[in-house]
Amino acid sequence: MKYRNLLIEDTNSNATHAEIESIENELGMPLPNDYKEFLKSCNGGYLEYDILINFEKGRSEYLCFSSLYSASNENDWECNPFELNEARKQEGFPQTGILPIARDGGSSMLYLDLRDGYKVVAFVQGLTEWTGLRQEDSIVIVANSFGEYLEKLTISDEMIKDHIENFKVSEDSVNSTIDWLDSIGLEWREKFRKQWNERVPFNEV
Fold it and tell me: Which domains does the chain have, with CATH numbers?
């Protein structure tokens, strides 16, 4: 489905009032309206877009927090209540005001932080030395609201290039890929026209 012009796959049944209220009771404060709107519309899903994370010392890196959690009370991963209970088992994790809302393909996580105002915060796990990338764990503010976080999402050139080179070409996959890439604007067509047209000569851009 499309939400705020972003394509979201594997969405769930709309979150109920009882499910949202249960999260708020556990959290110790009300959820922001923009996040409740998302739960009532999509209630989690798979969102393949990047966010540019700015670290200290002027470093930056694109990350993809693709797995967005649902409000379901099921005792399972990628459900807000379960993820919150698991997070609270960690030493030092705040007992109120912090809600896990998404993860990347590894151990980096995205949170709503409602303790002092409202912001979206990423915990970014450090990588091994041979990657040549940041090695230390970091906590970074990425947006001042969930709505702003969605507005900042994009598809990095690296992801576009990799997808064009490796996706399985068929009529359906071509149409869905164009819809996905167009959802961030049409600039990619000019930048990657040569690569795309070589790979998909029957549907040039």
Answer: 2-152 (3.40.1580.10), 157-199 (no CATH)
Distance (Å, whole) CA 20 – CA 23: 5
> Which of 124, 150, 107, 147 lies closest to 56, judged by CA?
124
Task: Kindly give, in sequence order, each residue whose CB lies less than 8 Å from that of residue 187, ignoring residues fewer than 6 positions away.
Answer: none
Distance CA 84, CA 101 (A): 9
CB 60 within 8 A of CB 53: yes
Instruction: Choose among 108, 151, 103, 165: nearest CA to 133.
Output: 108
* Predicted confidence (pLDDT) per residue in 21-63, tens digit: 999 999 999 999 999 999 999 999 999 999 999 988 788 999 9
pTM over 0.85: yes
Q: What is the pLDDT of residue 74?
A: 86
Rounded distance between C-alpha atoms, residue 130 and residue 2, angstroms: 38
